[in-house]
Design goal:
Shape: elongated
Radius of gyration: 20 Å
Strand order of the largest sheet: 4-5-7-16-8-13-12-11-10-9
Order of helices and strands: EHHEEEEEHEHEHEHHEEEHHEEEHE
Helix content: 25-40%
Structural class: alpha+beta
Number of strands: 16
Strand content: 25-35%
Largest sheet: 10 strands, mixed
Number of helices: 10
Length: about 300
Amino acid sequence: MIEVRQYTPADAAAWNGFVARSKNGTFLFDRRYMDYHADRFADSSLMFTRGGKLLALLPANREGDLLCSHGGLTYGGLITGTDATASAVVEAFGAMNAYLRQCGVRRVRYKAVPWIYHRVPAEEDLYALFRVCGARLVARDIASAIFMPHRLKWHRDRRYGINRCRNNGVEVGQSDDFAAFWPVLEGNLMHTYGAHPVHSLAEIELLKSRFPTNIVLYVARKEGRVLGGTVLYLTPQVAHAQYISASPEGKAMRVVDAIYDRILNYDFADYPYFDFGKSTEEGGRVLNESLIYQKEGFGGRGVCYDWYEWET
C-alpha cells in the first residue's frame, strides 16, 4: 500500500537524496533551489512511501482548494526512482487523489517534466493522468531544443553575426559577473516585454553560490563592456538557456550569435540536449514568432511543456 504525506523541512536530506538518484529529477527540485522563494508559495509538496521506503516526490504548493505542481518552477511533475513501475505510479496517483480529498483539495494543476530532462524514460505519470485522473490538457508551451548528436544547420544570418563579432573584437566567455549582466537583462526585458527577470540579482547570485556547477553565465564583452549574455541551467541531460539578452549595442553587433557559437559548437557540443526554452505566452495560445525564429535559426526544434488539470 502506498502512503502519502506532506513534506516537512525535516525531510530535506531524504528529499534531496532521492532527487539526485531519480529518473527525472533536476537540481530545480533540490530544496536548496525550491526554497529560495518559499515566502511566495505555500509549500504543499508530497512524499510517497511504501513499506517505509520512499517511492516518489511531488514538488507542489497550494492555493486554496487548488494544488499546483509547482507554481514557482517551469516544470514539476512526479519525481520517481528507477524502480517505479507503471502499476506503482498508477497506484500512487490514486492514493494522492484520496489524500488530497481528505485535505480539502478539489483540483490539481500538474506540470509534467518534459521528456528531454529524463535520465531514464519516466512518462508513467502521463499514463496515470489518463487512466486514473481523467486529466485534461489546459496549456501547452512550445520550446526549441537541439539533439546535440544530430544538430541541424544554422540559418545563414546566424553565421553573419558570428563573423561580425569576430571582426569587431567582441570576446565571449564564462563569467561570474552577474552584476554586470543583470542591467542588460533587465533593460532588454523591460523594453521588449515590459517585464522583470523571474530572479532578482541577489536571488540568482544566491542560487549560483548553492549550485556553482549547475548555473553558468556566458557574456560577450567589447572593450570591457558587457553587451549581452546568457544564463545556463545545467542538468544531466539538458543545458537550458534560462535567460538570453543583449543591449541595443549588443543586438546591433549580433553578440547572441557569437555566444551560442561558443556554447553549442565548442563548450557544450557533447551535451545530449540544448533547450532554448519556450516562445509562447498565455498557456501556449500566443506564439512569439520572432523569438522562436531566432531559436530555430540555431537548429532548435519543438519540445512541448504541458500542463494538466483534474478534479480529485
